[in-house]
Amino acid sequence: MSLSASRRLAATTALAVAGLLAATAPAALAVPASAAAAPTPPDIPVANVKAHLSQLQSIATANGGNRAHGRTGYKASIDYVKGKLDAAGFTTTLQTFTSSGATGYNLIADWPGGDPNSVLMAGSHLDSVTSGPGINDNGSGSAAVLETALAVSRAGLQPTKHLRFGWWGAEELGLIGSKYYVNNLPSAERAKISGYLNFDMIGSPNPGYFVYDDDPALEKVFKDYFATLSIPTEIETEGDGRSDHAPFKNAGIPVGGLFSGADYTKTSAQAQKWGGTAGQAFDRCYHSSCDTTANINDTALDRNSDAIAYAIWTLGAGTTVPPGPSFENTADVAVPDSPGAAVTSPITVSGVAGNAPSTLKVDVNIVHTWRGDLVVDLVAPDGTAYRLKNSSSNDSADNVVATYTVNASSEVANGVWKLKVQDVAAQDTGYINSWKLTF
Length: 439
Ligand code: DTR
Ligand code: CA
Ligand code: ZN
Ligand code: ZN
Fold this sequence. Notes:
By secondary structure, this protein is α+β, with helices and mostly antiparallel strands. The chain has helices spanning 3-18, 46-62, 72-87, 135-155, 176-183, 187-190, 216-228, 245-250, 268-274, 298-316, and strands at 91-99, 102-111, 115-125, 161-168, 193-199, 210-212, 234-236, 255-259, 326-329, 333-335, 343-349, 360-368, 374-379, 385-389, 400-406, 415-423, 430-438.
């Protein structure tokens, strides 16, 4: 009887007595089979987005200089957006609410078709503060979402998911409109929303490229898009609770979004990678009367608008986001029995822009009887170790064949990554058969 068999017999007896469930290695993450290939996302003409901004500017100018909740400029903004959507074939709904003694309006636009039980939603607040026209905050998000919706209509898109767009009132008073929408949505309807994408300030004059770091899959779609432009992004850290994604997140709905910065100051490191002016606010006219059509960076507005279209087309198609590049090492590396030293298997990553994703996939294949002996780590190029598998005194099964997902977003992607394996319990040996990184 081999050593492992005698160990297994003893362990089986122990397990029978203890009635313990054998620990199992994390199951490989099922990657849903992709549906038909996702249709190609369009370029969103930034001139069209700017034309909407000009209209919103004219509305503010004609209505006391703002588009704030409870003022005539806000309702005129709603009427403008609704008119465009009605003409494009959307089913629009005007939801009213009261806040601070004034009537508020949410505009919801459904694109006919798609699975009614799987809704992809995108939105932005349409109101401004009372002190100015609110062209970047948040005409930029409202106009980009509007133009993306119109692009859906122009394309006659028939996505797998049902597409819904929202323009929120009274965000500046405390997310009033979006809270009202979520709170009045029956729970069965909320459960149908597979994700909510929020866009609040995406054309800042001294722009940054921030991606909400809430739902990893939604974050990845945007990071993947900007990687195609070789533009590094940063996670949006100041935003929790500060815009209309918060009520959706609080209701358990996956959220994502983009942000180009408000009154925080751009650092020299950020200016190095994004251009613009270090030591200056991303938007010096935040909540000010100078937040006009002159307060927009066209490149940021264009890139973010295209990123919105990429996300809607990709996520709406119901396919999984196509995996990024992968790198594999299939060389066998013997794992000495305890108390031997840990062994490593290297993979050199090159040609991947920026940092690794928050959903770095690590496929591991280790041939080893009594896999409970093994401790497995992923070691990043800078030496940071990420524990993939701990040892276990009662996992007598053979081999480690598993897929792990690691949040490696703080690690530069390019460099030499290592799989580190150590046998920490006497008897039983084996070897690293292969392992793979997918970005
Ligand atoms: N509160 C938003 C602007 C804002 C400030 N920080 C963030 C972070 C993420 C999204 C938006 C914002 C407003 O004034 O409308
Ligand atoms: Ca574009
Ligand atoms: Zn604001
Ligand atoms: Zn805003």
